[in-house]
Amino acid sequence: MTRIKRGYIARRRRTKMRFFVSGFRGAHSKVTQTVIQQRIRALFSAHRDRGRKKRDFRRLWITRINAAIRAESVYYRYSTLIHNLYRKQLLLNRKILAQIAILNRNCLYMISKAIY
Fold it and tell me: Tens digits of per-residue pLDDT, 21-74?
């Protein structure tokens, strides 16, 4: 029997995977089996951390709002502020409140006095 050379399809698939992991160090970007594993791991982490990022930012905004409220002479907590916002039907989300707390604290105090 004559010798048959393999085609280019498998090589093209592996090259495509190597482009994905080109920034990884050592065998993680060289050895095909490790490249496959690291690619799966990277995609899994990216998928998981998209949700995690949303959680982390929400925690940061809550912390900033709470710190701004307690810093000056507003004598109640974050939870009371949010409860009063809902009670007065003011639709301000936490991201906007955190930006107000950082950039314009007087505005935050005016809001808190108005809803209290």
Answer: 999 999 999 999 999 999 999 999 999 999 999 999 999 999 999 999 888 766
Classify 105 as helix, strand or coil: helix
Report the alpha-carbon distance of residue 28 to residue 84 in Å, rounded.
53
Q: Can you give the pTM of this predicted structure?
A: 0.75
Which string of DSSP letters, residue by residue, matches the chain? -------SHHHHHHHHHHHHTTTS-GGGGTSHHHHHHHHHHHHHHHHHHHHHHHHHHHHHHHHHHHHHHHHTT--S-HHHHHHHHHHTT----HHHHHHHHHH-HHHHHHHHHHH-
Both tokens of 70, joined, read 């307690």
